[in-house]
């Protein structure tokens, strides 16, 4: 029997990621961490990525840190276009575009420096957030803004992702008494709790069986089961062209090192890590290191050829970013502008930060002799001007080091 009170209570309950997840658990008793993460990040109404309009409140990414990141990618895309024989239409699809800052930096740098590929460029932004998609319509730089990569077929060009795969929902596992168990999420006295299932997802067994060593008891890790479907989508969309993947992670040897007992799963809110993964659900990013070994091996199944893998510092250095640091130092600008740009560009290169991220470049299509020329050489990397911070970018210096002095500057950042 419904009462006026219960009816009112029903309508005043606020839909949240937490309430959606708890409802799922009550129906099933326990859910996989992958299902938990899918709802927390991507639920159509209350997921972190699908409902948030800005991520910069919770964490910085390379495009926010300095436009040198987007400028380097612009130069890279131009080189790829040349290597492919300068096609009349060169489509760049950025998946997980957020608020569009990377697209604006890539296209803006190409236009202002008259990079030859700009006349062939069609830039497409893809994001699952409906609010972000709506806000990007009409912004200069985009030819199209969509929510689903799979609407494209037979593309000639390049697909870019930056810090995307690390946010794909993962299954978690733990070794207990020599057995592979899956970490499940349940409720205990109304609060989230973890339990172990002795019947793990077969995909966990498949991935760990490929290791040539045993993992010790209490070892915890993650398996990104979405990598296979992701690579399949890439191969379906691209008929000829490149994939640039930029993310943090490692090869399987380091990720599943028996001496590395710490899981890479973590969450971020307002530039800090909450005490628990189960705090502030729907308001935090949840992320795990990318298994680049699996990404590369899965790519081979779909004829995606891995050409180069390097860290971000090496990639940016190849495109002359270290020379840009010298160029900034001699500019006639205020001390604050000088320091802000030096700090921003330096963050992209730091070995203990963005500089250690991996850059994977892959190719699919008819074999071409000029694939070896897509990386910079002395002529392609020199002579291009350094881009400078704008109001769209993060003030990394002001937010983290508002009172830095000149004597402290080099000690902190160089």
Q: How are the SSEs placed, and which strands pair?
A:
Elements: H1 4-12, H2 17-28, E1 31-32, H3 33-42, H4 48-51, H5 62-65, H6 68-83, E2 90-95, H7 101-112, E3 121-126, H8 130-136, E4 144-146, E5 155-162, E6 171-176, E7 179-188, E8 191-197, H9 202-209, E9 220-223, H10 227-237, E10 238-247, E11 249-250, H11 252-255, E12 266-268, E13 285-287, E14 290-291, H12 292-301, E15 305-311, H13 312-318, H14 321-329, H15 335-347, E16 358-364, H16 378-381, H17 396-400, H18 406-413
Parallel strand pairs: 2-3, 2-5, 3-4, 5-10, 11-14
Antiparallel strand pairs: 1-7, 6-7, 6-9, 7-8, 10-16, 12-13, 15-16
Helix pairs in contact: 2-3, 6-7, 10-12, 14-15
Strand content: 15-25%
Mean pLDDT: 86
CATH architecture verdict of the domain at 62-168 and 224-248 and 289-413? 3-Layer(aba) Sandwich
**How would the global form be characterised?**
globular
At the fold tier of CATH, the topology name of the domain at 62-168 and 224-248 and 289-413 is Rossmann fold
**What's the CATH H-level homologous superfamily of the domain at 62-168 and 224-248 and 289-413?**
Vaccinia Virus protein VP39
Features:
single chain, 414 residues, alpha/beta, Rossmann fold, seven-stranded mixed β-sheet, five-stranded antiparallel β-sheet, 18 helices, 37% helix, disordered N terminus
State the gist of this model:
It contains 18 helices and 16 strands. With 414 residues, it is α/β, with parallel strands linked by helices. A hairpin with a 2-residue loop joins strand 7 and strand 8 (191-197).
């Amino acid at each position: 029997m419904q009462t006026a009170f219960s009816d009112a209570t029903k309508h005043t309950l606020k839909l949240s990621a937490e309430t959606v997840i708890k409802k799922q658990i009550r129906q099933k008793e326990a859910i996989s961490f992958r299902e938990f993460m899918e709802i927390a990040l991507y639920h159509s109404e209350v997921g972190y990525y699908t409902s948030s309009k800005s991520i910069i409140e919770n964490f910085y990414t390379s495009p926010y840190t300095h436009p040198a990141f987007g400028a380097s990618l612009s130069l890279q895309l131009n080189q790829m276009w040349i290597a492919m024989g300068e096609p009349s239409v060169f489509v760049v699809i950025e998946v997980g575009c957020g608020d569009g800052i990377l697209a604006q930096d890539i296209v803006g740098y190409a236009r202002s420096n008259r990079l030859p590929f700009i006349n062939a460029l069609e830039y497409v932004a893809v994001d699952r957030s409906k609010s972000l998609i709506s806000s990007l319509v009409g912004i200069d730089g985009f030819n199209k803004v969509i929510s689903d990569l799979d609407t494209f077929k037979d593309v000639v060009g390049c697909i870019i992702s930056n810090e995307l795969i690390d946010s794909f929902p993962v299954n978690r596992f733990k070794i207990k008494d020599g057995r592979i168990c899956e970490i499940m999420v349940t409720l205990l006295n109304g609060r989230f709790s973890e339990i172990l299932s002795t019947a793990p997802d077969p995909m966990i067994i498949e991935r760990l069986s490929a290791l040539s060593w045993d993992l010790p008891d209490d070892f915890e890790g993650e398996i990104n089961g979405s990598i296979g479907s992701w690579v399949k989508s890439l191969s379906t969309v691209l008929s000829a062209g490149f994939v640039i993947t930029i993310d943090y992670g490692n090869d399987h040897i380091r990720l599943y090192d028996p001496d590395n007992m710490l899981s890479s799963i973590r969450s971020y809110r307002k530039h800090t890590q909450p005490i628990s993964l189960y705090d502030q659900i729907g308001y935090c990013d949840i992320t795990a290191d990318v298994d680049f070994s699996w990404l590369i091996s899965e790519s081979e199944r779909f004829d995606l050829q891995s050409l180069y893998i390097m860290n971000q510092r090496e990639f940016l250095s190849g495109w002359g970013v270290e020379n840009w640091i010298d160029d900034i130092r001699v500019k006639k600008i205020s001390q604050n502008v000088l320091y802000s740009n030096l700090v921003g560009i330096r963050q992209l290169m730091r070995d203990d930060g963005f500089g250690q991220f991996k850059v994977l470049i892959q190719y699919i299509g008819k074999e071409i002799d000029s694939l070896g020329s897509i990386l910079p050489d002395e002529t392609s990397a020199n002579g291009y001007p350094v881009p400078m911070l704008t109001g769209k970018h993060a003030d990394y210096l002001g937010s983290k080091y508002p009172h830095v002095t000149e004597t402290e500057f080099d000690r902190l950042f160089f």
